[in-house]
Amino acid sequence: MNDIQHAGVTSRFEIRIEEKTHVGADGTLVPAIRDFVLEVKSESMTVLMGPSGCGKTTLLRIVAGLDDRFTGEVDVPEGARIGVMFQEPRLLPWRTVRQNIELVAAPDFSEADLEWLAQAVGIADMLPRYPQELSLGLARRVALARAFATKPDLLLLDEPFVSLDERTADRLRRLLLEVWQARPTTAILVTHNAREAILLADQLVLLAPRPTRVVAVETIAVPQAERNAHAIDKIHADLLRRHPANFIGG
Amino acid sequence: MSVTFARSEADRGARIFRGPLVSVLSVAGFMLIWFIAAEIAQSRLLPGPGAVLEYIYQETVHGDLLTELGITLWRVAASFVVAMAIGSVIGLAMGQMPALNRALDPWLIVLLNLPALVIIILAYVWFGLNEAAAIGAVALNKIPNVVVTLREGARALDPGLDEMARAYRLSPLSKLRNVTLPQLQPYFAVASRSGISLIWKIVLVVELLGRPNGVGFELHLNFQLFNVTAILGYTLAFVAVMLAIEYLLVQPIERHSTRWRNKPV
To answer: What is the tens place of the pLDDT at every residue in A128-144?
Structure first.
């Protein structure tokens, strides 16, 4: 008997965007993405890294199905479950942390799952609270838990750790890795932060400035768990040598 | 702008309610001033609080006061529900569809500026002196206010939360319950709070002009008899009912639905 498989989990999928254009406020057309082709490997962490304003968020919104005004194709399987972490936490302020998570949770998401997840991201005591009582760092943890509560086939993370102080951001990155490694998921994360990209990526995709396209795809072989500050420095130096345009100032 | 104002107003109301002593003292002070004024005037045209309360008691036990109050309250409730339902649907639609907004805006401005009396008279002339015309006329007076308030609400909906709901594939019903309605709650609160007070005043006019019962009819009757005690009695009784609705119904509901907001950040 065949195992019933979630299409999104087991199959790799391809993003192909020929052209995406923004219409400016004065009616001018601004090309955001052109000839973008990327194959996303299943159960791996794909990190898209590019300068601010290069169209990363636009790209992620297209993959999430929030924007269909583009030419090209994103073959995310029909009915695939998606978990998203936006730049801001985007929690519902009138729902408790628990309600925020349970609202989007997968049908088979159990109380035990919730406890495990809340424990893993360190919000176990926060479940009955309202989001306004939380600091930004805590709210981000909740947003992270919510994204995993959907038991996603595809996890999308849009600069999830911006505007946090470096220590908090670093703790959250390690948390993301822990939860993600316990529940392997096809994940796409976009960032402009080189060290963040090097810490998290299995597959590091370097993007060109607007209109954005793929410049290079680097596979980082060192397991994430072994990427300490020293290892990151080494990888960074190597990448800086080969892709100076993408890593200067990063 | 108007919403923040109303919210701080509500907060103040809630604080006073938490210290009921202040309210009691305030009411007692009013009664005292009234009592002294009536004693000095010694006139049939300004009865003291004792005489009015006595009248309310007698009419409650032996007369029709409760029936008349009930009839008026029913008309207030019916007009309120009709106005809120129709006004919210139109307001939300106008807030989200600019084309519809442009089409209906002139109508809205006309209705906003049409005097209540004109609408009432025309409703009675065209549809007859009946209950439907009365309630319809009152609702029509209130609908434009609801539309304007809820249109602001629809315009203020957070696009970020809308994206979140779409990304997580919430069902339309779940999105309405969890994302859209909570954002509109303050606008509903403003519309209903100003609605109840406006509506009950207009209901009295409608009753005075063309209904054979209700508080407005009684006021009209007693005006012709120059019975100021009865006029004050009916007014006081109905004001008491409206205060009870405000303190026992509107404010507790509001406190419940905004409890997430009252927590310290």
So the answer is: 999 999 999 899 999 99
Residue numbers of the domain that contains A147: 81-152
- Indicate the pTM of the whole model: 0.77
Residue A197 lies in a domain: yes
What dihedral do alpha carbons A118, A120, A122, A123 form, nearest 10°?
-10
Q: Cβ of A82 and B167 within 8 Å?
A: yes
Q: Inspect the interface and report whether the beta carbons of B166 and A65 lie closer than 8 Å.
A: yes
Output the six-digit token pair for B189: 């609160």
Query: Is there a single domain that holds both residue A234 and residue A163?
Result: yes
Q: How many CB pairs under 8 A join A and B?
A: 54
Nearest chain A CA: its distance from B179 CA (Å): 7
| Any B CB within 8 A of A46 CB | no
Judged against a pLDDT cut of 60, whether residue B263 lies above it is answered with no
CATH 3.40.190.10 for domain B2-260, yes or no, is no
Selection from A192, A138, A187, A199 nearest residue A162 by Cα = A192
Distance from C-alpha of A21 to C-alpha of B239, rounded to nearest angstrom: 61
Other CB atoms within 10 Å distance of the CB of residue B161: 19
Residue A141's identity, in one-letter code, is: R
* Spatial separation of the C-alpha atoms in residues A194 and A175, rounded to whole Å: 18
**CA nearest to B180 within chain A:** A92
How many CA atoms are closer than 13 Å to the CA of B18, on its beta-carbon side? 7
**Does residue B122 carry a pLDDT above 90?**
yes
Inter-chain touch A133–B265, beta carbons under 8 Å: yes
* Number of domains observed in the structure of chain A: 2
Residue A85: name the closest of A166, A167, A232, A200 by CA: A200
Chain B residues in contact with A64 by the CB 8 A cut-off are 167
Which tens digit of pLDDT belongs to each residue from B54-71? Answer: 999 999 999 889 999 999
